[in-house]
Design brief:
The strands form 3 sheets. Strands 13, 14, 15, 16, 17, 18, 19, 20, 21, 22, 23, 24, 25 and 26 form a 14-stranded mixed beta sheet that branches. The protein folds into 3 domains: about 170 residues, no CATH class; about 140 residues, TATA-Binding Protein (2-Layer Sandwich), CATH 3.30.310.160; about 70 residues, no CATH class. β7 and β8 form a beta hairpin. By secondary structure, the chain is an alpha+beta fold. The protein is elongated and about 130 Å long.
């Protein structure tokens, strides 16, 4: 009896096996429809930019002898809005430098160069890390180019050849190099520079009994207008990039997001891991992508990190610049090995940087990298569009500005730089007033804005309601 039961069970299992095999071969599967993710194609909100477009000189200065029996060296400055500046910066990318050597530029040699020899000086706001500088220019034998960074280039003629001095003011370091720029090129640049505004140079190196008493180099000067000059202030309209547009740039599937309203009425959109916070005015966003820092086996240089930051913005909407552009304002040093490294880009109008005393109204793009991954991304949602009104005003001369600094008891030896910007004031009806201001930048990095308008001509700009 037991044997019969076993036989029946064995036949049953064999038949079941045949049935299951048949259904696998010939049976039609019963698929269940799953709705696709709500993926939205990323539509650009601005244009893509290259690294070279985001790093620009703040000034180009033309040093040339004045005509006459008692000729003196004149210093004419071309701002980014001027033709000589645009002409030179268009060709700078084709310059190359070679045969580098440390220059023993003592005080006497410097004075002879600065007072007697015509030349062109290209100045950057801050020191450009060496790895980035190599990307901006063609450096022959670049493995022999040793310096932490460059913030000034000085071209001059010596014995019928153009030589270049590359300055790192923070390190009191000067590198001498040969260049592809020839004498006819430099003479052309100098002739174009005659249309710049005449300036006076002011030393940032305080001396006593003819000897330096600060750590700043005797080669470190700033250039300010010799006379008052007329520049425009503007009233513009602006529009906002919507939070929904930024969501489509930063999240693959917006349908999965949860929304949290904070007590200050700011909104946080999150997929459980990444998050984007929109401030209550909807003028500024901050995107966070938590990423555990892992010390990399090989550290990327600053050039690679900068490209990564720029490409992140390019791939997520681009750079909004209807009436202006962006420039790289702050970046880590080449030897910065900290876990987080921050790159800051500032918007400008007619090439003058835009400053605001309200953090949510600063037209900035800021990225924080950790282990070559963007973990924090902040940016303004405002786009300047149409010009509604403009008026010209005389700005203070260098002498008037020196008087103002004297009243404020600010010594030049405390300063790193002085430069022109537009201070922004936003209204509730989508208008913004751009007022000319001097930025007084201290050596410790602190910045103070003071009106650049000459006291005798200051008036209100009509048009901002």
């Amino acid at each position: 009896m037991l044997e019969r039961i076993k036989t029946v069970m064995l036949y049953s299992l064999v038949l079941l096996s045949f049935y299951l095999t048949w259904t696998l071969w010939y049976g039609a599967p019963n698929y269940e429809f799953v709705s696709p993710s709500q993926y939205e194609d990323r539509k650009p909100i601005g244009r893509q930019m290259k690294v070279q477009e985001l790093i620009r000189p703040t000034q180009i200065i033309f040093h040339e002898k004045s005509e006459g029996e008692e000729s003196e060296m004149t210093h004419k400055v071309a701002l980014p809005t001027m033709m000589p500046y645009r002409y030179i910066t268009e060709y700078m990318g084709g310059w190359y430098f070679s045969k580098y050597q440390s220059s023993n530029l003592n005080r006497d040699k410097w004075e002879e160069l600065a007072v007697e020899r015509p030349g062109v000086e290209i100045r950057y706001k801050d020191r450009i890390p060496s790895s980035v500088f190599k990307d901006l220019f063609n450096l022959k034998d670049n493995e022999l180019f040793y310096t932490e960074g460059i913030n000034r280039i000085w071209l001059y003629i010596d014995g019928g050849r153009v030589k270049a001095l590359l300055f790192s003011d923070e390190n009191d370091e000067v590198i001498e190099a040969q260049t592809s720029v020839v004498e006819s090129d430099l003479n052309l640049y100098l002739s174009l520079g005659s249309s710049g505004y005449e300036s006076e140079r002011y030393s940032l190196n305080e001396t006593q009994m003819g000897r330096s008493i600060t750590s700043q180099s005797y080669t470190n000067y700033i250039y300010l207008p010799k006379e008052q000059m007329s520049l425009p202030q503007h009233v513009l309209s602006y529009k906002l990039v919507s939070p929904e547009e930024m969501i489509s740039q930063l999240f693959v599937d917006p349908s999965t997001l949860n929304v949290i309203r904070e007590r200050d009425n700011s909104l946080i959109y999150t997929d459980g891991t990444k998050g984007m916070q929109v401030d209550a005015s909807k003028r500024y966003i901050e995107y966070k992508n938590p990423y555990p820092y892992v010390s990399p086996d090989t550290e990327s240089n600053m050039d690679e990190k900068l490209r990564l930051a720029v490409n992140f913005v390019n791939q997520r909407g681009g750079w909004t610049e209807s009436s202006g552009t962006y420039h790289l304002e702050d970046w880590p040093e080449d030897n910065d090995s900290s876990e987080q490294q921050v790159f800051t880009f500032r918007s400008s109008y007619q090439y003058f940087p835009l400053y605001s005393q309200d953090s949510t109204s600063n037209l900035l793009v800021k990225l924080q990298l950790s282990d070559d991954v963007v973990t924090n991304y902040e940016r303004s949602l405002m786009i300047l569009v149409d010009k509604k009104n403009s008026n010209y005003y005389d700005i203070m001369s260098g002498g008037q500005l020196m008087e103002l600094l004297k009243q404020k008891e600010i010594s030049l030896s405390q300063l790193k730089d002085i430069y022109l910007v537009y201070k922004t004031t936003f209204s509730d009806n989508n208008e913004v007033l751009l007022e000319l201001n001097w930025v007084i930048q201290s050596r410790n990095g602190d910045e103070e804005l003071v009106s650049a308008i000459a006291p005798t001509t200051k008036e209100d700009v009509n048009g901002l309601e």
